[in-house]
Q: What sequence folds into this?
């Protein structure tokens, strides 16, 4: 067996990862329906005004404002309605002095008119319309180009397409949009003991958990999870598996990064690429490796489900978001008293899972091998390496999952 | 034209919506790969122990703890190694007095042994192993069932399957899981002037924006957006369109809920169902209707893109999440000074969009018809109906999009 030579602190691990990755350059064209959450790869420049014509902003009457200057509820002005214009229609007539056009919200303004009186300030009897208020010129009109002007840069490269930005692209008439590709993240579980859920377990075997937790994390942070078949603990099979993953942008393996004699994945990776670290001073998740293979970052995650998932949150998510050109994850935290004394004598920076119960942080961490350490937790507190004990009642900041 | 008879306050609108909706009952079976974010529809009960056997939690040597009671670095105990067990293998031999078995993390414990000494506390020379520390019984063993016990309820109906919970289901060996269906939300843009992006615009026409913004919001809050073809402003076409949407769980229309003579959608809905309100005291978004048709909630959103999207956030999201059995949306807020005086004399509760620039809330709201009121904003502040002015420098709470 080969003990860890040394572990490195979390900050150093993060810096090494950060130095080895870069934002994705590949782009693709997607339908606007599928653009939500994607990152814009070209500035969006308007080729026409939005709205494309001046239009009524209210249901009412299009008027010449000067005709209404003396109108009031006590002394209404009477105008003659010459036409009705609904949305999607074009006005046929010009509004002359003493005239008005009945108009629906969104319908094009008729020539001659320079204001809209809302219907609530009018009363109509056949074609004679009583106007109860004076209009300012321009009133209740959505002017051509008021939203977006031809030639205007509406959105810049790198902006994330939330609902309203997808809407602004629709306003430009774009049915498709050029976005950065989502990084494809190869997921590979290694180990002879690993069996897919749904299959029977032979003695000594366990179900693959990490493929599923990693896929969920990757999909939730801008990546495309690409599960690969479980590899056996042989140099030949692992080598073939790594080669198969080189079509993807990022490689995440789990298992085989501890110090057992049969942890061959690191030998394979050292041979094909460069291991930048192996072993970090955190708990859970110490036996974690990182390096570069075939120009791609690879994460060698611990086989233990809680360790693997904890490091996915702590190391993989920030890296993946940067590769995917997303802003850092906005974690949510709550500060609450600790429900029970926690002893942490590991000398490692600990991510200790807790449940929030009745406003208290209740310890949820069991063992690194226990997925329920995570699945029955609401988040985690961090206990620095030099802290041995966190007392009951002490205020702790819980980072929520 | 038909003016609004009355508008109702936002709270009352919310209460009417809440009274008309209920959480979805339909369930479906999905592959575990696709279960992330879904809501569990059956308690998950373990049919086997996890781990299914007692296993080494460290690389090292499986020992009888009593053999090591006097071991120290100064006076090591020597044991005879009788076997090597890797993960996925079964031990063949029983550990007797004075014996040990070399064991990898995750490998099944051999009979006879009751503790694991980590490799760092040993030194091996052929089959003779020096043990440098005494072991406690049970040390470094992940006991059968320590994570999950047979018969244990691991997860309950209604829990949202985040990464770790998907992992816990994998640990149970489940390849599929029964979840609540995502509500299907019909999206229908009404109006003769509406054209799909990618098509040329005729005079008086504009591009459909709401279909895209609504779809993004719906997909982001647990629903399945189901866009329907744009309906023309005729009773016959609208009636047929509503019937086509009744295969979905929720109906969201935009346009045609203002007070124009041609706003026929409300007539169609009154005829086929029940309109619970029409007109709310908010800005933007006053011409909003809600009711029930064919037993399904329908939202009649304003045609104006900012109004429609604002109300999607304010009214649709809470309702949709409740129908989808998701917890209320955890909005993020920041409290910053207002960069400019804002005048709001509407007498309506206003959702006023702002951009965060240099730590200040900069007004971003233009007009209800302008999508850039939203797409160039980071969030909104709320200005109550009775507040006319918010002064420059005043601290405002910005709800981030």
A:
């Amino acid at each position: 067996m080969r003990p860890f030579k040394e572990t490195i602190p979390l900050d150093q691990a993060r810096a090494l990862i950060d130095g080895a990755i870069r934002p994705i350059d590949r782009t693709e064209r997607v339908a606007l329906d599928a653009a939500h959450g994607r990152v814009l790869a070209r500035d969006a420049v308007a080729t026409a005004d939005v709205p494309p014509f001046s239009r009524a902003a209210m249901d009412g009457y299009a008027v010449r404002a000067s005709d209404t200057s003396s109108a009031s509820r006590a002394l209404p002005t009477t105008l003659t309605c010459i036409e009705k214009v609904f949305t999607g229609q074009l006005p046929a007539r010009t509004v002359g002095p003493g005239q008005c056009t009945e108009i629906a919200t969104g319908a094009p303004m008729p020539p001659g008119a320079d204001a809209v009186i809302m219907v609530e300030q009018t009363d109509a009897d056949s074609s004679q319309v009583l106007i109860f208020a004076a209009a300012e010129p321009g009133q209740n009109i959505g002017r051509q180009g008021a939203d977006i002007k031809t030639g205007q840069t509406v959105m810049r490269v790198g902006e994330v397409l939330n609902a309203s930005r997808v809407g602004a692209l629709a306003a430009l008439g774009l049915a498709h949009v050029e976005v950065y590709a989502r990084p494809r993240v190869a997921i590979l579980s290694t180990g002879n003991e690993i069996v897919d859920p749904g299959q029977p377990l032979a003695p000594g075997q366990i179900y693959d958990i990490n493929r599923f937790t990693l896929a969920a994390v990757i999909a939730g942070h801008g990546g495309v999870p690409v599960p690969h078949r479980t590899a056996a603990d042989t140099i030949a099979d692992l080598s073939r598996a790594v080669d198969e993953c080189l079509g993807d942008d990022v490689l995440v393996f789990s298992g085989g990064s501890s110090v057992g004699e049969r942890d061959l994945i690191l030998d394979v990776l050292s041979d094909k690429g460069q291991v930048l670290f192996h072993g970090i001073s955190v708990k859970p998740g110490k036996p974690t490796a990182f390096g570069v293979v075939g120009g791609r970052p690879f994460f060698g995650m611990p086989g233990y489900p809680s360790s693997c998932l904890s490091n996915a949150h702590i190391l993989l998510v920030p890296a993946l978001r940067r590769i995917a050109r997303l802003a850092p994850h906005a974690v949510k935290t709550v500060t609450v008293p600790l429900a029970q004394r926690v002893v942490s004598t590991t000398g490692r920076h600990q991510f200790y899972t807790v449940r929030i119960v009745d406003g208290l942080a209740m310890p949820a961490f069991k063992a690194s091998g226990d997925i329920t350490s995570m699945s029955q937790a609401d988040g985690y507190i961090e206990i620095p390496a030099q802290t041995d004990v966190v007392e009951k009642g002490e205020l702790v900041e819980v980072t929520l999952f």
Remarks:
- The first helix of chain A runs from residue 10 to 20.
- Chain A touches chain B through 101 residues (CB under 8 Å).
- Residues 10-26+182-323 of chain A form a domain with the Molybdenum Cofactor Biosythetic Enzyme; Chain A fold (CATH 3.40.980.10).
- The mean pLDDT of chain A is 93.
